[in-house]
Amino acid sequence: MSVLLLIAGAVVIVACAAALNAYMQRRKQRFRMAVCPKCGAASDSFVSTNESTDFEGLPHHDDICCWNVISEYSFEECSFTVPRWQLEVPWLRFAGVGGTCSAGQTVWNAACSSRLRPFLTTEQVSLEPLPSGMQEHLQRSWCSIQENKSFPTATHIHLPEPWCLAVRPRTRHSLRRIVAVSDFAGEIPNWQTLEDHLYRILLDKDGYFFFIDLQRLTEEQRQLEVFHRFLVNLRANRGLRNRDSRLSPIAVCISKLDFLPECVDGPENTARADRCIQDIQDSGPADEATTLSAIRRRHELILKYSSLFPCVKGLNGRLQDECGKDGFMFFPMASVGWVGSDLSAAAAIRPYGVIDPLLWLLHASGMKALPP
Ligand SMILES: Nc1nc2c(ncn2[C@@H]2O[C@H](COP(=O)(O)OP(=O)(O)O)[C@@H](O)[C@H]2O)c(=O)[nH]1
Ligand SMILES: [Mg+2]
Ligand SMILES: [Zn+2]
Q1: 98 CA → ligand 3 middle, Å
Q2: Contact 209, 112 (CB under 8 A)
Q3: What pTM did the predictor assign?
Q4: Which atom of ligand 1 is nearest the CA belonging to 153?
Q5: Ligand nearest 157 Cα, by number?
Q6: Could you read off the pLDDT of 99-110 as tens digits, one per residue?
Q7: Is 19 a domain residue?
Q8: Do 254 and 208 share a structural domain?
Q9: Residue 273 and residue 265: Cα distance in Å, rounded?
Q10: In a domain, 188, yes or no
Q11: Residue 4 covered by a domain
């Protein structure tokens, strides 16, 4: 009898220990950075860089660095470095997918990150860019757009360093997050195949900005193919065979809206393009004041004027199937404001709608970032 009791006790203890262990694992998963925001390696590939002290004998920041090898060359390490405390914060990783190789991604990244500086507070959240090399690089690009009226040069085809921001909900009980936004060169989804490691890393993010290129109306079919191929690969990469399971949220950005009247043919379409821009400007609050209903209104306007835009009709049906009705949205933006074809003639550069896709992607990822 006592032996039986002993065995039963042992079984209960082992079961409790296993349950506790599983709970702790789940908690750990949920509450900390699971993978490197740059290369996707498991977060245990991070090691401390904190053995040295600076010249005044003070310890360096307690930084950690990812030593994952990111190409076929063993010396090419990821090297993404962050302060150690950021390991304990849950991360969201977003990236852009360009329909062409010059769809306006880098200009948007520069406009959006600059607009958030030094921090930006909305009704629901506060957003604060974290200092990094990429943040400084985007800052310089933005200064050169504003002051020299010159656009950035083409993005290198390599694994991009993300720029990061801390997002704090304004309600006390919600969870803080860090968001990493990666500016991948448009060539990666346009030219590369599944064997390519950069393309595979791009497929591993938590949410996407699709960038439709307005200036390539004649290349609509090619742009659609890039997006369709990406969606097929995304589904395969996640192992989602069943059509009922939804893909991660997708913000479809039309980033050069100021250019629209010059991209369409004939006086009738030009007048329609002017009306479309006017309707979008009249559609309600945007950027730090934006709301879910204003975002929905602009999405509906893009559908109403879909004949002016490449890819909109094709993507609308496809994304409803892939992401569900609320899992994607069209975002008209003017990354450099309403300047049209001549940036040098612009008196002032005021971005329009550049924060909206970021806030919406946060919202669609489960953070209450938008008021109704
Ligand atoms: N008018 C206008 N042109 C833009 C805008 N954004 C980008 N462009 C043009 O598109 C080109 C490519 O932009 P970029 O952001 O580098 O594209 P990426 O290759 O997708 O990163 C720029 O050099 C500009 O000529 C915009 O908001 N308005
Ligand atoms: Mg670029
Ligand atoms: Zn890494």
Answers
A1: 23
A2: no
A3: 0.90
A4: 16
A5: 2
A6: 999 999 999 999
A7: no
A8: yes
A9: 10
A10: yes
A11: no
